[in-house]
Amino acid sequence: MTPTTDSTAGDDTGRAPAPTAVAGVPEGFTVMRMPTNPFVDGVGPLYGRLDGERFVLGIRIEKRHCNPGGTCHGGMIMTLSDMLLLMGSNIEGGVNRYFTTVNVTCDFIGPAHEGDWVEGRMQVLRVARSLVFAQGLFTAGDAMVARCSGILKPVSEPDPRYDGRRYFTG
Length: 170
What we know:
The structure is a single chain. Helices cover 14% and strands 33% of the residues. The chain is of the alpha+beta class and 170 residues long. It has one domain: Roll (Thiol Ester Dehydrase, Chain A). β6 (132-140) and β7 (143-154) form a beta hairpin. Residues 1-22 have low confidence and may be disordered.
């Protein structure tokens, strides 16, 4: 899966240029300013909000995110799961380290349709010396879309450059 990384591409901070916002983004969400990542740049923009110490990931489902049946593609939900767990673990777990994904499991509970606003909330279950265990839930309105869980491996020393709150700065 896709780890969060710092890159020298993009602006002078190594972050991708801020993508154009999509209409109908709920109040309090901001475009996530992430390091340049050709894969993730192609599925965004991703939005985020901090509710105190809790991280919420959001996205408006577009036609390009959907399968031929008109609902959000499972691969897109898996990508969102990976991003939720990686970013949220640094924010909520206070780990401030570069992660790689060891495992992500996703249960698809219900559909998200084109135009739906999907939100993901997560919980860090355990921060161990060499692994972080986390889980998350995606909803569209009051309907559950997917449940995910993951194991992440920190592969760097703690570094303020990996503080997840950096995604909210300009």
